[in-house]
Design a protein that fits this description.
single chain; 223 residues; mainly beta; Immunoglobulin-like; five-stranded mixed sheet; five-stranded antiparallel sheet; elongated
Length: 223
């Protein structure tokens, strides 16, 4: 039976063993936890290492690892394990099966900020107009959205122009894994130079809404 260089836990209970000083540290954003494990092959045949299994909070998650270790050799094996995108950040104690041995693991999930916005670009005209936005929190932390956000307009010149304002009915928090449809209002300044194209990038949480105001004829009316 191949044995690892690190000492395997002696407990046969299903719950995670108490972390030891030589416990494997698996860390990263929830979708890509990584580590490198040293495995020694003391058997009389080559050892094929693949598909580690992480046991965490009653769940078993299959990761990826590929290595072929010759008899008597030792190898450093890169390991990747994906958890659900909404797994909260923090430290967790677990166990991992790799190369025929179950050993203690310390899992450190880091914060992952990811907010998806649709549409991410809109055409606008001077004056107020209603917009519908769909926001999805694909990260693992709560995402607060301010009820009022502003951004300066840019027409390509050296100086920023007046602000475009995005107004929500109320402050909103998007929970990890949640998708919300929001009704909002854009307020575009009336006094923008009509012969130029203006762009404003309004913050929506960690996402951006790009507002584009196209050149228009002087005879055009705003709506």
């Amino acid at each position: 039976m191949p044995t690892p260089r690190r000492k395997a836990p002696t407990s046969k209970r299903s719950q995670p063993a108490a972390p030891a000083e030589d416990a494997i540290v698996l860390s990263g954003p929830p979708g890509r936890l990584t580590t490198t494990v040293t495995v020694e092959n003391t058997s009389g045949a080559r050892l094929v290492v693949r598909q580690p299994t992480l046991h965490l909070d009653g769940l078993s998650v299959t990761g990826s690892a590929t290595a072929i270790i010759a008899t008597g050799a030792t190898a450093s094996v890169p390991v990747t394990v994906p958890l659900a995108a909404s797994t909260p950040p923090g430290r967790h104690e677990a166990e991992m099966e790799l190369g025929g041995v179950r050993r203690p693991v310390v899992v450190t999930v880091v914060e992952h900020l990811s907010l998806e916005l649709s549409p991410s670009r809109v055409l606008a005209a001077p004056g107020p107009q209603d917009v519908t936005l769909v926001v999805s929190n694909s990260g693992n932390v709560r995402m607060p959205l301010a009820s009022r956000a502003m951004a300066r307009t840019d027409d390509g010149g050296p100086d920023p122009g007046p602000d475009v304002v995005l107004v929500l009915d109320a402050p909103t928090v998007v929970e990890p894994g949640q998708t919300l449809t929001l009704e909002a209002r854009l307020e575009v300044p009336e006094d923008l130079e009509p012969t130029r194209r203006h762009i404003a990038t309004v913050p929506v949480g960690t996402a951006d809404l790009q507002v584009i105001i196209l050149p228009r004829d002087a005879t055009e009316t705003t709506s």
